[in-house]
Structures are given as structure tokens and as C-alpha cells.
Amino acid sequence: MKIITHYFIRQLVAIFVMLLLVLTGLAWMVQIMSMMKFLLNYGVELSSFLGLTVLMVPFIVSIIVPFVTFIAVIFVYNKMISDNEITVMAASGLSPRQLAWPALRLAVVLTGIHLLLNLWIVPASQAKFYDTQWNLRYGLAHMKLQESAFTEMADGLVVYVDKVSGHDLSQVMLSDTRDEKSQMTIFAEKGKLIATARGLSIVMTNGALQAYNDTLTAGTFDSFDMDLNVADKSGNSVFKVRRIPTWTLIKTVATQDSQKQHKLMLAELCTRFLGPVMNLILAALCALILLRSSLLRRRASFAPAVAVGAMAAVMALFMSATNMIGSLTELGLMALAQMVALAGIMIALSKK
After folding, report:
1. Which of 27, 104, 244, 347 is the most exposed place for a label (fewest CB within 10 A)?
2. How many Å apart are CA 352 and CA 348, to the nearest integer?
3. What is the pLDDT of residues 140-185, one digit of tens each?
4. Nearest Cα residue to 231 out of 270, 177, 195, 256
5. What's the pTM?
6. Residue 191 β-bridge partners
7. CB atoms < 10 A from the CB of 84, how many?
8. In degrees, to the nearest 5, what angle opens at C-alpha 265 toward C-alphas 264 and 269?
């Protein structure tokens, strides 16, 4: 039995790794194409851009692992059924459960790896991704002001600089018309771009200011620190639940007031904890359908199609239930439903 198990696992692992690399590579290329604006609009260096896109790889892998597991199982088992290897093994006395054991063994290992990805690696990489993305888009990393040229840093915020030396600026003109009720024009001999906890700021020295409110106000200054507010790094940004550490997410669920964010966090917890179990459920379901159909007198040639349909239905049900979860009790019930479904598949595999 050990020889047969190793024979199955060797083929399953080979197909799984190949599919994972191909699909991850394709998804990564799509991600690169969708983020080309960082190269075109923000003047980001190629190495920084590729480093940013690489941070999406753990998240991509966490999404496609259950599908890759299913495809690997259906490919290997269907091939062995077509070559009559499964028929010979069954004739020698091996039960469907024994024949399915290699796929289940691989699925258990992948469930553990997937859980590790979801609970620690993906949140850490997503937090790094969003911080790096913000810095490339709004931070000092992309602020390469051109000399003797007008640069639009945001809608209604235009800066003209005569000379640039790193982040030190000479002969600065800044026009801020983002608020129609409070417009401002500033002229300064020198300026410096700095990154602060609140975002990007420009410190100007020896200049003059004209402000347009209900009345025109003009004056001079020795030093003027202006918060550019080109983006809000945390408060007004879209709620990115994927970057929250798992333990923090668990503690926050109980105290979150916003119902929308509460549902988002519950859905994320469901994905992190219960998503990996789908590796085991899909592998067992695929093995059950293929092995049971292979032992029929008239082998069901449509078994792979049935397996694919069952996979689509199960994943659609899981994703729908994930988006509908409204409390921790419902999350527990969904986990129980997964265990019941898995137990039912295992019982069906064990029947002779």
C-alpha cells in the first residue's frame, strides 16, 4: 500500500506544483498589467514596482489553492481510470477509501499550509502591500518634481519648482484650489518635502501667501508647514480588512460598531479559518465521484464533468454563505456544516 500511496502522491504533487506555478504566474501577470499606472503615472522605479506586485503573490496563492488541489486530483485520478490502473487496483482488493487516501493525505497537508497562509502570511503581506502602495503613490518615493515645470500633485493642487535637489526645492509656487471656499496661493524661496505621520507635507521658508476666503488675505512668512493631504492613509481610505492581523481581527469583531465593516470582518474570518478546509472537501468530493463511477459496470465517462459541476456548486455555496454570515454563531454553524459534509463524503467512500 505504501508503494501505491507514494505513486499517487508523486503524480499529485507534480501536477499540483506545475498548475500552481502556471496559474499563479498568470494571475501575477494580470496584476502587473492592472497596476501599470504606477510605472506610467507616478514614475516608480521598475524594481519597486515589481516588489509591490510580488507582495500580492501570497494572496493570489491563497485564493487558487483549493481549485489547484481539485484540478490535480481530477487530472491524476481520471488519467489512472482511463489507463485502467484504478480498475486493477480495485480488483486487487483496494477499497475506494484506500484509493482516495493519497489525495486526502495531500489535501490535509495543503489545508495546513493554506491555514498558515491565511492566518499569518497573507495579512502581513497585504499590510506591507497597502503601505508600500500608499508610499509609492502619495509618499516621498514618487514625488520626483521636475525643474521649471508645473506638477499636479492632486486635483486642484499644483506645484511649480525652479530647481530640485532631492527633496529640497528652490523658488516654489504652490496653488491650492481643492476647496472652492478657501483657495490659496503661496510663493517661497525654498521648500522641502517631508513625510509625516499624517501624510506628505511641504515646509516652505521666506515666502508670501495669498488666501481667498470671503475676503482676500495676504501676508509674508519666515516658515510655513503645509499638509498636502494628497491622501488619507487610514481614516478615509477604503476598509482593507485583509491587512488586519488575525488576532486583532478576532478581537475587533466583538467591538465593531459599523455593521458593514462587521460583516466584512466576519466574512474575512470565515475565509481565513474555513477556506483551507475546502481543499479537503473538494479533494474528497472529486475522489468520491471519480472512484465510485469507475467501479460501475458501465464506466461513467461524464464523471469528470459531474465532479466539476459539484465543485462549482460547493464553492458557490461556500462563497455565498461567507458573504451572508452575520454573527460568530453563524460562523460556527458553517464550520459544523463543513465537518458534516466532509464526514458524509468519507462515509460514502468507506462503503463497499
Report:
1. 347
2. 9
3. 545 556 788 887 777 788 888 888 887 788 999 998 888 877 888 9
4. 195
5. 0.78
6. 169, 204
7. 12
8. 120
Mention every residue, 6+ apart, whose C-beta is less than 8 A from residue 45: none
d(C-alpha 146, C-alpha 162), whole Å: 8
Contact 180, 208 (CB under 8 A): no
Decide if 192 contacts 167 (C-beta within 8 A): yes
What is the residue whose three cell numbers read 509656487?
A: 173
Greater pLDDT, 107 or 146 = 107
Sort 11 into a burial class: Cβ within 10 Å, 0-12 / 13-18 / 19+. Answer: middle
User: In this predicted model, which residue has the larger pLDDT, 19 or 165?
Assistant: 19
Contact criterion met (CB below 8 Å) for 192 and 220: no
State the average pLDDT for the chain.
85
Tell me the three cell numbers of residue 12: 499529485
Q: Which of 170, 171, 174, 135 is nearest to 156 (CA)?
A: 174
Helix (H) or strand (E) holding 259: helix 259-274
Residue 154 to residue 18: CA distance in whole angstroms: 44
DSSP state of 299: -
Cα atoms found within 13 Å of the Cα of residue 168, Cβ hemisphere only: 1
